[in-house]
Structure formats: C-alpha cells, structure tokens
Amino acid sequence: MHQPAWKRWLQQNLGFASALLLLAAIYLLYNMLHPRGFSSAVAVQNANETAAIAFVAMAQTIPVLAGGLDLSVGAVMTLTSCIASVLVNGSPAEIVFGMIATLLSGTAFGLANGLIVVYGRIQPIIATLATGAIAIGLALLVRPKPGGDVDGDLGWALTNSVWDFADTYGLADGGDAWWLRPFADIPVPLIIVLLVTALVWVPFRRSVTGRTVYAIGSAEGAAFMSGLPIARAKIAAFTLGGFFAACGGLYLAIQTSSGNADLQQAGAYTLNSIAAVVLGGTSLLGGVGGAVASLVGAAILRVISFYFRILDIDPLLQPLIEGLVLLVAVSFGAIRTLRVKNKLDLFR
Amino acid sequence: MRRLLQFTTAIGALALSAQLALAGPAVVSGPGADPACFAPWSADTKYMQWEAKPGPYKIAIVNGFVGNTWRIQMIKTAKAFAEDPAIKDKIKEFKVVSTGTDAPAQLGAIEDFINQGFDAIVTIAVSPDGFDRVIRLADKNNVVIVPFDNVLDTDAVMQVNEDQLAMGRTWAEFVLKELKAQGKTSGKVLEVRGLPGNSVDRDRSIGINDTLKASGGNWEVVQVVGNWDDGTAQKVTADAIAVHGKFDAILAQGGTTGVVQAMIDAKHPMVPIAGESENGFRKLVAKHSGEGLKGISIGQSPGLVAIAMKAAVAALEGQVMPQLISVPLPVATYDQLKDGENFWSDLPDNFFTVNEFPPCGVNVSGPAIMSKSEEDVK
C-alpha cells in the first residue's frame, strides 16, 4: 500500500486541493477577460479588496477547527478598525504604537471569548453572538459617527505595490534599486497576508496547542483522554481568532483611512468568513482544514464577485447568480461523499 | 510572466507620470453649465472642470446595499435612463454592480472600473468616509466619480443630492399653511422620523422643527421613530394615536402609506399631512383629500441616479460643474395629484412616484420603469 507522498497529501486535502484548483482557474480566466488583465494595477486592486475578508476568514477558521463557530469575528474587525481609526496617526512612533494597540485589543477580545467559552461553559456560537454585540457597542462608543484620520502616506503605501511602498517612504532609492526589481510589482497587502500567515499560523499549527485544536475538532473525548491541553487550546483558538480579526480591522482602517461602526458590514463579514472557511475545504464539524485553505476560500469568494464587473449580468440577478456559484463551489468540497466505501465514514 | 509584469509597470509608471500633470478636475469660477438642472448647493459651492474627453463614454454604477424598493427602483431607473434617446448615444458601455454593505468591495469595484478604463463612476457610498484612495486614483486617471444620495464628507468630488433641510422646511411650511386655513396657529403635531443616526433623518427633522418654531405658534411636537418603513411607521403612528388621541397635523419622513393606514384604522380624523413620495401615500391623499387629508408629497427620488449620470456626462464633456449639485425637490400637493401622471393607481403602493425632473430633461415615468422590469423577466 505504498503511495507517493503527493498522492497521500491529495487524498487528505481533497477539499483544499479542489479549492486551489478552482481559484487558479477562475482567477486566470478573470485576468484573461479583464481589459488590463495580468497587470500590477489589477493585482493590487484585487489584493486590496481581498485582504480584510482573508484575515477575517482566517480568524473564523481556528475556532471552527476546534468544532465551534465564532460569530463575533466581523464585529471584532469593526471594533478594531474603529480603534485604529483613532490611534493610527501622528509621528511614526505613535503610528506603530497605534497599530500594536489595535492588534492587542482584538487579541484581548478573542482571549475574553475563549475564557467565556471555556470557563463559562457556554456554547461558542451563543457566547460569541453576545460578545459580537458587545464589540459593536464598543465600536459605536469609540466612533459614534463614521470618520477618522489614519495616516495618509501609510494608507497609500500599504494599499499599493511594493514599488509605491518604497517610493512613499524613500526606501531602496525610491523603489528603483536593482534588488527590489523582482518584487516591485507585488501588491503589499498580499505580502502582509502571507507574512502574517507564515509567522503566526504556521508555527501555531505545528505547536502542541495547535495540534490539540485539530484533535478537539476530530474527537474531543479522545483528545481529553489522551491528556491534551484542551482548555488551553480552546482559549488559544479564540485568542488567535481575535488577533486575525484585528489584523483585518487594522487593514480595513488603513485602506479606508477611517473607521465606521457599521453593523451590517460586521454581519456580512461574519457570514462571508464562514462561507470562505467552507469554500476552502475546512469542515464545519472541526478537525479538518486550515487557515491557508480559508485564504483560498476568501479569494474564491471575492473573485466570483469580480466577474460581475467584467461581464454583462443583470444587476438584480447578481445576488442570485453569486449564490448559485457559491453553492456549486461548496459542493466541490462534498465530492468525497460520492466515493466513500463505507457509509459510516460520512459520520466522521 | 515577470517580464510582462515589469513591462506593464514600466508603461504604467510612464502613463502615471504623464497623467500626473493633468490630475483631476480644476477648481474654476462659476457659473456652471445648465444651472436649472445642475443647481449649486449654496453660494459657497465651488465649481469644477475636467478636461474634455471625446465620447461616447463608459459609465458604471457602483451601488452598495440592494434589497429595498428604493434601491431596486433606482437600478431600474438607471437602466431605463441609459436607453433614453437624450443620453443613449453618449454612452458606449454601461454596467451596474451592487456590492452590498461592504466598504472594501465597493472601493474595489470602483478601482476595478478605473482600471478597466471607465470614464465615469456613479455611486451611492456605503460610508461617508474612506474614499481617499479611489479619489486619488480617479484623479490620476481623469475618471469622474459622482456620489449621490449618500454623499461623501469631502469637497474633492462632484456630488448630487436633494437638500434634506429644505425638504423638512417645505413640509412644515405646507402644514402650517393648511392649519392656518383652518384657523389654527397652535396645537399638537406628530413627527414620524426616519432611521436614527442618519444625516438625512437629522437634516429633515431640523428643517421641520426650525420652521415650526419660527412660525411663532405654540406647537407641541410628538416624535416617534418610523425608520422610513411602512410597517414600522404604521405601528408607531397607531401607538402615538392611542396615547395622544388626536393630532392637528402629521409630518412623516417616510413610510407614509403606513402612517395614513394607521390613521384610517384608528378612525383618526383626516388632518393635513406631509410625507414622502410613495405611490400608496399619493393614492390615499387623492382619495381622502376631500375629507381633510390635505397632503404634500416630496420625495428623495430614485431618479437622482439619472441626474448623477447626466452630470457625469456633462463633466466628461468638459463643462463647468458645481461641486455639490442640489437637485430641485419634486413636490406635489393634494390639488396637483393626477392619476397616471404623478401617481399610478395600477402600480404598487411601495413604488416611489417621483422620477421626472423636467428642468433636467429627465423624463423616466413610473410605467416606463415598471415595463423595463417586465422586459428583463422575459
């Protein structure tokens, strides 16, 4: 029964692999149909639009892996973007302090979520429904009316290509240094998302706590009997979720150079984050999937809506079509049900 | 692939540096073109002028939230107006997208249309802030962005709206006039407000209350919140009538069909009323005005989109435009109502009646919009 490693990986990650394939296919086609496809400007625009939802999808993934849902991710993103809209301006030191404070506030909110779920023994879905409302309330306190004054240079630098980033801050000969050439066209938001993933998610996944999150989602009883740190892992899952949501909020504030305690937007982001998680191939029952998969899921979600701008589709039919495409895309993840040998497998 | 990217950036950088020279609109002195239609907001409103581009143009509508009657009617109006002979030849390509209440998606859609080489982008902003980046990009690429209805807190773009303060004032002035004709110069009036926290609700209410105060009469104003929604407005009006018994007049910001329905249900005497432009409200006023339901109907018209499109085309043609355009209020009083002209007894109650702006040559009538939808269903 020896199999090549890639084949084994494929069998274990069928949902993720099909999502990746789907993304590659639809994004390639999008660029071919776009009048300025395959250009840096289009990539920058796409990355900008996707960054916030990508972070929020990652935030949702970790509680989902542990078998819970976090209904507060969109609200925490909104709260942190409002905080950032107040703090991220002034001198460079003040800006850095504001960014750190924003990330910490989201992380603290996630920690509170985790503590309530673990020590309050409340179902995650109910606990986070309540804390989500609290987050919106706090956001309204911080920013009763939309507005704010996030540093304009920072906003411009972080929402463009690497060249513009260097140009704004006068780094690497204003972006023209030879060694920057190969990277000059890459959108900065893409780099930020990938960097956060590599520096936070990957080490977490490899740690005992991270693996315990997966174990809880697969079989909490078995994980407990094996002596795994269940309470710690659950708290860590929600805390990390809060951190990722704060990353999304910070980026949103920088991108819009303002904050807006918008209840509807928070709700939309929470729902879209769940959709992105499922699209990426993470099981809502927990134990299967990962944050990288949700990144792909979030990207698919966005690319579907990109199509409405290049194709001629009746505007009132767009939500219907978007829903149908989503349903089809999610069904890809369910393909494994067609090839199970034993019906009992489905209960996994 | 990388070489291709580098190549396009090089071209992009070149184009960018070339375009920087002619970045965005110039601030010029008035008066602007067609002042009957594109009226400046106030005497302080500045004027803008873009470099004239040869037509026909590519125009996109980036809507936010979709899902209430007003927005759906707005989209249908935009489509109907794009086919109007007055503007059809000036439009090469016309696209409409709705992004939901998601700021990055709306900003992304606007940026995408700039990238695709569209000439003008008409939008209802989901947030009054946060458009700095796309405005910067639009200016670099000489694209005209026209927010309307929910406008931005900036004077860097050309915007189109109705004066909500004036709307509140006109409502109150009409009601005061009708009450005076009855010999009343003081009394109790009901004000049905809109969505709390919204600038439109705030301005309309200020207009109403300032005018009542300025009249010198002793007016007791009872405020309830109706959310501009028929169901909510009907419920809160019924509650207010139950508590207060009788009002001398009613001023409703929206959901006016529900307000009148509540009056009828409670057998409240028919009194002067000010309200929005719902077809149902106008139907009821036409039917009951003889019994005392002397009404005025003014609306935030979904037809604003047509004015915004017209303004975008005018700006692209290089005409001098006011930065903030005040669209004349579409007013109809009970003695001006005419079935088939400014209300339609065969159209649904929640249809917004005002869609025609004669000074602007915008004449998209109710049935024209409704028939547009039937074509689409086929």
* Biggest interchain interface, per-side counts: A-B, 52 and 50 residues
Binned, the helix content of chain B reads 40-55%
Largest sheet of chain A: none
Q: What best-fitting shape of chain A do the alpha-carbon axes yield?
A: globular
Q: What kind of sheet is the major sheet of chain B?
A: 6 strands, mixed
Separation, N- and C-terminal Cα atoms of chain B: 44 Å
Return the average pLDDT of chain B rounded to an integer: 87
Rg value of chain A: 21 Å
How much of the sequence lies in strands of chain A comes to: under 5%
What top-tier CATH class of the largest domain in chain B fits best?
Alpha Beta
Concise account of the structure shown:
Chain A is mainly α and 348 residues long. Chain A has one domain (40-292). Chain A has helices at residues 5-12, 14-33, 40-65, 73-87, 92-119, 124-142, 152-158, 162-169, 188-206, 208-218, 220-225, 230-256, 263-279, 291-310, 318-333.
Distinctive features:
heterodimer; A: 348 residues; mainly alpha; 15 helices; B: 378 residues; alpha/beta; Rossmann fold; six-stranded mixed beta sheet; 40% helix; elongated; disordered C terminus
Provide an overview of this structure.
The complex is a heterodimer of chains A (348) and B (378). Chain A has 348 residues and is mainly alpha-helical. Helix content of chain A is 71%, strand content 0%. Chain A has one domain. Chain B is elongated, with a radius of gyration of 23 Å. Chain B is an alpha/beta fold and 378 residues long. Chain B has 12 helices and 18 strands. The chains are: A mainly alpha (348), B alpha/beta (378). Chains A and B meet through helix 3, helix 7, helix 12, helix 13 and helix 14 of A and helix 1, strand 4, helix 2, strand 5 and helix 4 of B.
